[in-house]
Amino acid sequence: MGKYAGDDRLFVTYTNGESMNRVMPNHSLIAIKEYDYVKDVKNGDVVAFDDSGEMYVKQFYNDYRSQNYVFSPNSSDNSFTPIIYRWEAAHEIKIIGKMVICVLNM
Fold this sequence. Notes:
By secondary structure, the chain is mostly beta strands. It has a single domain (about 1-105), classed as Umud Fragment, subunit A, CATH 2.10.109.10. Helices cover about 0% and strands about 45% of the residues. The chain has no helices and seven strands. The chain has strands at about 10-15, 30-35, 45-50, 55-65, 70, 85, 95-105. The chain has a seven-stranded antiparallel sheet, with no helix packed on it. Strand 4 (about 55-65) and strand 5 (about 70) form a beta hairpin.
């Protein structure tokens, strides 16, 4: 776990699905460092977020021009589309944290 060993804000989970298969294959083991605020992550970070009780893992972008938070898939399957929230609707989602470690299942 390197510098994250013993970090009490870290949890480990598996990915489930193909929406991020260019970054990590389905069933990869990932470690997520928990964060409390959307301002703790930056554009391009791979984040876990909660939307209505479901956890998703996507690349995060804060689009200042259109005032949207964009959670983008990174997949070879074009059927996956970005999940977009207006800033004023940000209360509907919760950034759980940022992926800091990925163990690929080859």
